[in-house]
Specification:
The chain is an alpha+beta fold and about 230 residues long. It is built from 5 helices and 8 strands; from the N terminus they run H-H-E-E-E-E-E-H-E-E-E-H-H. The chain starts with a helix and ends in a 35-residue tail after the last helix.
Length: about 230
């Protein structure tokens, strides 16, 4: 991290007395966040797991999560992808989840920083989450830290330089760095980002999802009468 700070300082042509490392690091962290807002890079994709607690339906998403891809209940041969249910639809059909019997979760409601499982777990289950994660802010007290955004050093230094020149009200220099350095580096980062090159769209036969808990007719999220 120290090398990046010195590079940005050289770009801004300011001494340590005139411009602190802490302020430069603030601009660097802003650049990380802004870059992650604009594009989801391959290194931002994460797989993690958590364990449910019996009779508890609400769980927190990871702190720096950007987007959720899938939630999978992992239980050997009975593993299954949890089905997303819109909050309004869920509240319409299941206005009082606690009144339903507990069981094996098959659905989840994504709501802000939390998700709600239904049915409410009757035991401990492992939930595997595929999601994308914003990079963590770097701190001035740990000079050994580095960004988790891979191969973006020049781009992040350039973006930090732009933030710096704007803050210092040197608009001509900010414009130069933005147009001549940041823009081509950002375009290059998009071109070299990992792509799903092995993916080919295939029409698949529709197969109704099996309710592994049995008694599908008792589930209020399934159409029809129960």
């Amino acid at each position: 991290m120290g090398e990046s700070i010195e590079e940005i300082r050289a770009n801004l042509r300011r001494t340590v007395t005139a411009l602190s490392d802490a302020r430069i690091l603030t601009w660097y962290n802003w650049s990380q966040r802004y870059l992650a807002d604009m594009h989801t890079y391959e290194e931002m994709q994460v797989i993690t797991s958590t364990t449910t607690t019996s009779a508890v339906s609400l769980y927190n998403f990871p702190t720096r999560m950007k987007d959720i891809y899938t939630l999978v209940l992992s239980d050997s041969a009975n593993s299954c992808k949890l089905v997303y249910v819109n909050a309004r639809e869920f509240d319409t059909k299941v206005p009082s989840p606690s009144s339903s019997t507990t069981g094996r979760p098959g659905w989840y409601v994504d709501y802000g920083t939390q998700y709600q499982l239904f049915r409410i777990p009757d035991s401990s289950y492992t939930i595997v989450t595929r999601y994308t994660e914003f990079p963590a802010d770097l701190v001035i007290s740990d000079t050994s830290q580095s960004t988790t955004l891979s191969r973006k050093d020049a781009l992040l230094c350039g973006m930090s330089t732009v933030f710096g020149f704007y803050a210092l009200r040197e608009l001509e220099d900010a414009s130069y760095w933005s147009g001549n350095m940041v823009t081509p580096l950002y375009k290059a980062s998009l071109e070299t980002d990992h792509r799903d090159i092995d993916w080919v769209p295939v029409a698949r036969q529709y197969i109704a999802q099996e309710d592994v808990s049995g008694q599908v007719w008792k589930n209020p999220l399934v159409g029809g009468k129960w």
